[in-house]
Amino acid sequence: MASIEEIIRRVYKALEDEEFQEALWKASLGSEVRVPRILQNYEYIRELAREVTEARKKSIDRLDELIEELKDSARKTGVKLFLADTAEDAREYIGGIIGKGKLVVLSKSMVAEEIGLREYLEEKGNEVWETDLGQLLIQLEGSKPMHTIAPAVHMTVERAARLVREKLGLEIPDNPRPEDIVAEVRRFLREKFTNADYGISGANAIAADTAAVVLVENEGNIRLVTGLPPSHIIVAGMEKIVETLELAVKQAMVQAAYASIYPPTYINIIAGPSSTADIEHTRVYGAHGPREVHLVLVDNGRMKARETPLRDQLRCIRCGRCQWECPVWRHTANIWGGPTYGGPMGINWTGITLGVEEAGPLTLLCLQCRRCDVVCPVEIPISRIIHWLRRQYMDRLLLS
Amino acid sequence: MVLNVREILLLMAEETEKNGIPLPINPRVITEWAEGLGLPEKGDTLLYTGGLYQLMPYINALVKYLEVLESRPSGGFLLKAARKLGLTGLAGAIAKPDRREVEYSHKVLRAIVKLLQSAGVEFAYNPSADGYSGVLLYDMGLDNVFRRHAVRVYESLKKAGARRIITIDPHTTFIMEKVYPEYVKGFDIEVVNYLRLLREKGYKPSGNGGRVVIHDPCLYARELGIIEEPRKLLADAGYEILEPRRSGRMTYCCGGPVESIAPRLSRKIASMRARELSEKGRRVVTLCPICLANLSRAGEKLEINDISLYLSGEA
């Protein structure tokens, strides 16, 4: 657990890192104008956000029932469902499926980060590659994602070029352009995609009625991760379940819009393994896509969080808007907010997944300025929850 | 070196329990501004300052002291010793604020009184019922200390016969209007912010005119919805209002709330905001004593003044 003094020390170090501050400055300028523009150009998004907010509230209320419904639909669609109580349970289950000596491709998943999946699979003797460019850079740097949807937001193009040169041996010219890095990484990962034994993805939303998952992206790596390998493993938080596929798609659209990428280039819907019945009406699994699809639902504190004010945070669709808009995050990125998640929502997710002790000291750097509350598309009172965590923590800090 | 946060919080908590304000200074600093003004002491509408304007010079002195500590390797230890032994370094530093800042806070309070009087608001000021509201305790999550303090404040207000109080800054307004009812059983005092009151009275202030950049405080903008009132008052007083890049409901924080825990971070945020304000103009209007202190500290060449001074023609 990091003490408040340790947290301040890390923040001060980030304040002094000029490259870090410069990259963050450039990135945050754009994001602030893009979302309002999207909301202006696509008027239905606000209405969708309201609908999704209500749907999220309802699904958190009905979570136990929806899990039962999901079990049923998973059986019908041929999705192998596993409910993991803890991060350890989830890791071990996935580790059990994959074994060792395999090639694994991952698309960016914060829940995979939360349970330490990549490191775990590597330790077991697998070759594991992140395929989202930003997340790959994080893997190479050995750090953590610095924003929910823009993990390498703290890196300048020079820093990124240095990393892929040194760690992957790719040839990137001097005075690199982003295009140079993208092209080389594309070439490098192609072969990993085609030879991978397992593809692991997260999920933006899971539909209880169909066991379908919805995934939104721009790069196209999710299509490959979930389409090319013979096996697809989905790892997601339990709170991602909504009642219907219709709502799941709407949720993904809202997430993309508030993450300032609209229209998203791709929205993927995956309901079970690939199959064909073209020969004599006999169903055969694994036509071109995966033969098997696993869905690992992670609890890791979520169900228990429903009994506290953290309940509202479970509504989060992980768009990362509260991070861009936070005056503290603007200087620290995810250096502040917890070991996996970061910024305003990150503090609360740290509370959900690791408890008050871990989240408590982080709350002391929150300004309580409430910008996060105002910009959250699903109306989570983020700063109020942070204040609640702070009160729990203070009680203990001053009594000790 | 970073500061020992627990020590700072304990200092605030202990001092508030002991003498009603979060710093080791004489509580008279809260009420001395009104001496000699001849304000009536009895009435059912009381001016309740909450003490934030008056405390800011002392908080500034504390932050300056903490910034020095932060730059030293032994700062955390010194702070602990200072609290435990009541050492002179800390108390001495706080007890000697910048006199100009103290005078400034008195000027603001007197300007507010004048505005209320000119608007025809009937109110009294009872020094024994005025005092610190406990905002920092609540903000920092020191729930039990805050609750005890709030009950004491409420009792002294009731004893003075208050049925309605007039508040003058965003933090005190928020805490009295929204938090006290949650923490103090049977809280039944009506809370009205003075800017709202001036508008309700249809008061037309007169100022010196010119262009001013407005910096909305977070709590007025996002918690209390006081956005139009200051703009209308300033416009009526003859000012042309310039809106910074982030204003109104989306206003940007001055960094003040973390000033005593992470002064360097606080200053960074303040600088960013000050730069943003300076892009629009040099004359800045603040509506909160914490914003005033922090933006002034940020070092931009800005002429920052409280709204009350603009509205009374003193800025």
What does this molecule look like?
The complex is a heterodimer of chains A (400) and B (315). With 400 residues, chain A is of the alpha/beta class. Chain A folds into two domains: 4-41 and 308-399, Fumarate Reductase Iron-sulfur Protein, Chain B, domain 2, CATH 1.10.1060; 44-300, Rossmann fold, CATH 3.40.50. Helix content of chain A is 52%, strand content 13%. In chain A, the strands form three sheets. In chain A, strands 1-12-7-4-2-3 form a six-stranded parallel sheet, with helices on both faces. In chain A, strand 10 (275-276) and strand 11 (284-285) form a beta hairpin. Chain A is globular and about 70 Å long. The mean pLDDT of chain A is 96. Chain B has a four-stranded parallel sheet. Chain B is globular and about 55 Å long. Chain B contains 14 helices and seven strands. Chain B starts with a helix and ends with a helix. In chain B, strand 2, helix 8 and strand 3 form a beta-alpha-beta unit. With 315 residues, chain B is α/β, with parallel strands linked by helices. In chain B, 51% of the residues lie in helices and 9% in strands. Chain B folds into two domains: 5-198, no CATH class; 204-311, Rossmann fold. Chain B has helices spanning 5-19, 52-70, 75-85, 88-95, 99-118, 135-139, 143-159, 170-183, 194-200, 218-224, 228-236, 263-278, 289-297, 307-311, and strands at 45-47, 164-167, 190-193, 210-215, 239-242, 283-286, 303-306. The interface between A and B is medium-sized, with 31 and 35 residues.
